[in-house]
Specification:
By secondary structure, the chain is α/β, with parallel strands linked by helices. Helix 2 packs parallel to helix 3. Strand 5, helix 5 and strand 6 form a beta-alpha-beta unit. The chain is 43% helix and 11% strand. The chain has a domain of 98 residues: Alpha-Beta Barrel (TIM Barrel), CATH 3.20.20.20. The strands form two sheets. A six-stranded parallel β-sheet has the order 1-2-3-4-5-6, covered by helices on one side. The protein is built from ten helices and eight strands. The chain binds pterin-6-yl-methyl-monophosphate. Pterin-6-yl-methyl-monophosphate (PMM) binds next to strand 1 and strand 5.
Length: 265
């Protein structure tokens, strides 16, 4: 899954694809590089981010979704709002990627259920401006699994078909670096009942791991190689999808993992 953030302020590529024509062009490049899905988002979810209005999110996202769909690209919409999901699906998006797992908008699960599209349910504990204070866990793996299970039960209760659900541990969302590593370490276990999506691309915990001798984190622009390493490991551990900004090397990593996986039998 290649990422196109149509935002001025995303952590990893903020501002780069804010122009809608450029955003469509970039999505097509990601497909040429090997992306099977292009994820289009219009609201930054980085720690500390403030929310954008519904109107502005629609204005950012819809032309890009429509432009890519018009070129035959499988598009997912990265949104926490049912109205944005609805408009994007009407424009041809095939998957709804909701980082709040239905918590931010009480109408989301019902919309997804009616539309019959795949639904990414991510582990989430609050919006960007409040997630820092919520990175407290008794046992990160147990707590995330429990909270995801609760979301799954809730959205199934609202009519979402179980076979349409994809789970995501939500790396970097109300998580300390060590939490992200612990969750990555149990990708296989998380993938037991549902397909799993992993979004590690260019996130801060990679920069922290690769900090220099003085403890200065590696800039996110120089974390693409580490992202590729995560993709290979996640794919080998059974992840269904990796969400990345720089597709080419990650697509290669996923193919290497698939070859090793199939050689294992
Ligand atoms: N991360 C971001 C945005 N959307 N969606 C899913 N399903 N999983 C993620 O980990 C995820 C996401 C934030 O990353 P970006 O702003 O750097 O694209």
């Amino acid at each position: 899954m290649g990422v196109v953030n149509v935002t001025p302020d995303s952590f990893s590529d903020g501002g780069e694809w804010f122009d809608q024509e450029q955003a469509v062009k970039h999505g097509l490049e990601l497909v040429r590089d090997g992306a099977d899905i292009v994820d289009v988002g219009g609201e930054s979810t980085r720690p500390g981010a403030q929310r954008v209005s519904l109107k502005e999110e629609l204005r950012r996202v819809l032309p890009v979704v429509a432009g890519l769909v018009g070129e035959g690209v499988p598009v997912s919409v990265d949104t926490m709002r049912a109205e944005v999901a609805e408009a994007a699906v009407a424009a041809g998006a095939r998957l709804v990627n909701d980082v709040s797992g239905g918590l931010a908008d009480p109408d989301m699960a019902q919309f997804v259920a009616g539309a019959g599209v795949p639904y990414v349910v991510m582990h989430w504990r609050g919006h960007g401006h409040e997630m820092h204070t919520r990175a407290q866990y008794r046992d990160i793996v147990v707590d995330v699994q429990k909270e995801l299970r609760a979301r799954v039960e809730e959205v199934i209760g609202q009519g979402v078909a179980p076979e349409m659900i994809v789970l995501d541990p939500g790396l970097g969302f109300a998580k300390q670096p060590e939490h992200n590593w612990e969750l990555l370490a149990v990708t296989r276990e998380l993938s037991r009942d549902f397909p799993v999506l992993i979004g590690a691309s260019r996130k801060r915990f990679l920069g922290k791991l690769l900090a220099d001798a003085d403890g200065r984190p590696r800039p996110f622009t120089e974390c693409d190689d580490a992202t590729v390493a995560v993709s290979a490991i996640a794919a080998l551990e059974g992840a269904w999808c990796v969400r990345v900004h720089n597709v080419k090397a990650n697509a290669d990593a996923v193919r290497v993992a698939a070859a090793v996986g199939s050689a294992r039998g």
